[in-house]
Design goal:
By secondary structure, this protein is mostly beta strands. The chain has two domains: 129 residues, Sandwich (Immunoglobulin-like), CATH 2.60.40; 321 residues, Methylamine Dehydrogenase, Chain H (7 Propeller). Helix content is 2%, strand content 48%. Strand 22 and strand 23 form a beta hairpin. The structure holds calcium ion (3 copies).
Length: 465
């Protein structure tokens, strides 16, 4: 602040003789940082001595800010009138609509027409021009919606991080389409891109994650790329998408591998029945084999450098969610077989050591308990069971005996940075809701109406500038 705030008087001189006394010239602004919408900024050029004649002060314009784009072109000189010690130059900032990093604008006095003048230590000022633009869908929560099968009304909603603003149907509104497709099942992210897995439409929609402008469509109903695609993760620079194939055929299930440069499926990896959720650690791809329309009970491990299934790890029946903790352990929740299968089994939570891909510990639920929606946030694990959310320290050796929040009706949930986000699909034909709880005191922060069958909840951060 200080350097730009005031011209420092290097010396004050008094003289009685007739010669023009040299002045010390400087340049300053009131602030050293301005938002690009600030309008006109006064740049003050000073001299310590008034002159008998007009003196031209020349200055150079440099820095990362672009003349004509970030500010109106400056003349590069100003005339100090005879008898005056200051002159103001107007710097006009341009309020554009580009999302951009902060820019530097440097004004440096290079010479004056009075050759004896001293160019003082305050002869240069560096201004920071800060941006006032943002992308429409950064720093908030994205919710994917299945919609109703055959209606083309899958959708994605954006909820601002302060939970004040909800925009539904953002793919359709941004891209000007009326019917998008069926069953936005899940989303994955890589760099600036979001990948929306559309189960019913047998496609993956690629968008810019911050603008939601369409980038590419991979697959589609008439193509053979995907068959019942479910979830996607990124490993070794490729996209891995789980596919059930025909949900009643146990022998046609696979993971499709997407080349993220060309947005094409470049190979497939055959796996056992019902590949569902998928996570990645160090190029090792872990696939929960829930079983499709049937039941399965393993996690497949794929080496993303060879695309070979290196091992399968036995867990509980119907592994429905899996997460890595801060120590690199893989936690898997298996719901157990539900009673309608006729062979009901208990839920189970397994901790897998990812250095040797073996089960390190197992926690067993009661036979009629069927947990799901495992989440990790910091040192805590969270899961959902029978309308309640449970929390557990990842170091704990026993399941929690009491729940955190009860009376819920979540279709799925996510825990992000101390907040619980749960989606309620209501009656599956009208709009559902997103409920947000503060996990420090388990209070309900807000409930927002979203769209039909909300399923996936994701944090979309702030884009790099
Ligand atoms: Ca600008
Ligand atoms: Ca801008
Ligand atoms: Ca199948």
């Amino acid at each position: 602040m200080l350097t730009a705030a005031m011209a420092t008087l290097l010396f004050a001189s008094c003289s009685d003789d007739d010669e023009q006394v040299p002045g010390t010239v400087g340049i300053s602004t009131v602030e050293d940082s301005y938002e690009e919408g600030a309008g006109t900024v006064a740049v003050t050029i000073t001299t310590t001595e008034a002159y008998d004649m007009d003196v031209t002060v020349n200055y150079e314009v440099s820095g990362t800010a672009t003349s004509g784009e970030d500010f109106t072109a400056l003349s590069g000189s100003a005339i100090l009138l005879a008898g005056e010690t200051t002159i103001e130059q107007s710097l006009v900032l341009i309020d554009d609509e580009d999302v951009e990093p902060s820019e530097a604008l440097i004004l440096t006095i290079t010479s004056t027409s009075n050759t004896q003048d001293v160019i003082g230590s305050n002869s240069s000022v560096t201004l920071t021009i800060t941006d006032n633009d943002s992308y429409p869908f950064e720093n908030g929560i994205l919710v994917s919606h299945e919609g109703n099968f055959g209606q083309g009304n899958a959708s994605v909603s954006f909820i601002s991080n302060d939970l004040s603003d909800v925009q539904n149907g953002i793919f359709k509104s941004v891209n000007g389409v009326t019917a998008w497709g069926d069953n936005a099942q899940s989303m994955a992210f890589n760099g600036d891109y979001a990948y929306i897995v559309m189960n019913g439409s047998q496609k993956v929609e690629v968008v810019n994650r911050y603008t939601f402008e369409s980038v590419a469509t991979i697959g589609g109903p008439s193509k053979a790329d995907f068959l019942n695609p479910r979830y996607m993760a990124i490993a070794n620079g490729k996209g891995y998408v789980t596919n059930w194939g025909d949900g009643s055929n146990p022998d046609d299930d696979y993971v499709a591998v997407i080349n993220l440069e060309s947005n094409t499926v470049e190979t497939t990896i055959s796996v056992v029945e019902g590949p569902e959720r998928i996570v990645v650690k160090d190029n090792m791809v872990y696939v929960a084999q829930q079983g499709g329309y049937n039941q399965n009970n393993v996690v497949s491990v794929i080496d993303a450098t060879t695309n070979a299934v290196t091992t399968t790890i036995a867990v509980g029946d119907r592994p429905n969610s899996l997460q890595l903790d801060a120590d690199g352990n893989l936690w898997v929740i298996s719901g157990g077989n539900p009673s309608w299968t006729g062979s009901e089994t208990a839920g189970q939570m397994d901790k897998i050591n990812t250095t040797n891909n073996t089960v390190a510990s197992t926690l067993n639920f009661a036979e009629t308990e069927h947990p799901g929606s495992l989440e990790v946030d910091g040192a805590n694990l969270y899961y959902y069971m029978s309308g309640s959310v449970y929390a557990m320290d990842a170091k704990s050796t026993a399941l929690p005996t009491t729940s955190e929040i009860t009376g819920l009706s979540f279709y799925d949930m996510a825990v992000i940075d101390g907040k619980l986000y749960g989606v309620d699909a209501k009656n599956y034909v009208s709009n559902g809701s997103l409920e947000v709880y503060d996990l420090t005191d388990n209070s309900l922060l807000t409930s927002k109406e979203v769209s039909i069958i909300p399923g996936g909840i994701y944090y979309n951060g702030i884009a790099e500038r």
